[in-house]
Each structure stands twice: as structure tokens, then as C-alpha cells.
Amino acid sequence: MDVGMPITPLMVRELYKESMGAHIKCENCGAREPLDAEFNRCGNCQIIPYCSRACQKMHWKKAHKQSCQKGNEEAYKLFLDKLTRRLDRFAHVYGPMVSIALSMRFSIEHLNDKRVTPRTHVMMVHMSELTDKDAAKPRLLIDKIDPKPMSELPEGHRKNLQDGLLFYQDSSKVMAYFLVFQTAGGPFLRPIMSSYQDNPFEYSIKRMKKMSSAKRDMFSVVVVSWIQSINDMAKGKRPDLFEAAKGN
Description:
Shape: globular
Strand order of the largest sheet: 4-3-5-6
Number of helices: 7
Strand content: 15-25%
Structural class: alpha+beta
């Protein structure tokens, strides 16, 4: 698939067909949450998603009743729970497009410095609040993306990333990254995993190695274009791209 500019509905439609995650799914039946509407959550913990009341009742009896914990009433804890849900929703709606931008940015960094690889570094996607209250939820924007050495991550975050990759048979086909949101208590990091039929990093590297240095330089502009398209979708300015994504 051509991932250059301009970003078209056809490109987005093909991209979402190829993407195998990250998807929010009903905890009971596995139905995928639609891009234009959110599933209801457990009324107690406000975390576990369900596509219907029937699925919620069924899962409550067979599993969730034993593990559900009522949310901590402390304001900051509730804020983090809500933020986690919003970041997960962002990854669910825009994940395939984010992964394309990240794989290209990773490839650019690797060609400039061979020490930068998905095994040694992880991409940090810095987020901010979308203040337009008329925009669709989760009302988040991408500010910037940059690679961070795994060795500089706190041990807990490294473990979360490693544990998450264990769920996949072939972790080389998974784009793992962190969504980062600045809070009063410091940066909040949410690990995200998106799986694909092929290794997105290797695909970008192979394409770039065949290009002249001038064309490679253009990929930095393409990365910016993808991020801008994501932000425009979040603002409601690209309904054509959103409809293309929904079609899959």
C-alpha cells in the first residue's frame, strides 16, 4: 500500500483492512466496538466493555463478579481511570494510522542511527487535550512522536510492554508504543499494541532503502501529514477519512 501524500479515503480503508488491532472488544462475546460509538462499561468499575446488557449479565455471572472492584472515589484515581479509557479509545479509532506514522518515523531514525530498532527503543506518542467540546470523543490530539530507549523507561513500564507482547504469537508483527499524557502527577503512560499481517517496521525499511536520500527526506513530511490527518479527523475536519475507516 502506498502511504505517501495526500492521505486519501482509499488509503485509510486499505489500512484498516490490514490492521488486526488494537481493538476494544466486548469482554463476553468479542464483538468489536464500532468507531462511531462506544460500548457501555461495567457500572461498578467503569472499565470492562460490553456490547449489550445481555453480554454484561452473562459475563458478570461467569467471571467479572469475582474480579470487579468499585472505582476508588479519590478524584485523581477516577481521573486516571477515565484517562485510560480515553487513551484506549483513541488507539481503537486511530491506531492503524498511528502505527503507519510510527513505523515510518522508526525507519527514519534507524537509517540515521542503526542502534535505533523496535527492540532497543519504543515510540512515545505525546497527547494533549482537544478543547473543542463539539468534537467527537475521546477529544485527544497528537502533539509529537519520538523514540525513547527502552533502558530509560521505568521498570514497571518496561514490564508492561514485555508482558503485553507475550499475548502475540509473532511479536515482530506488533507495533508497540506508549500514549503519553501529562497530568498533575507527571506523565501518564499507556502501552498500546497493534498487530499486523506483516512487520510494519521492516516494510518501511525495505521501501526506504530503495530510495534516494532526497526521497527519504520526504518521509519526514509524510509522517507529519499522517499525524495532521489523525488530528484533523479528531477535530471533525476529515469526515471522508473517518467514513473510510468505519467501512472496515
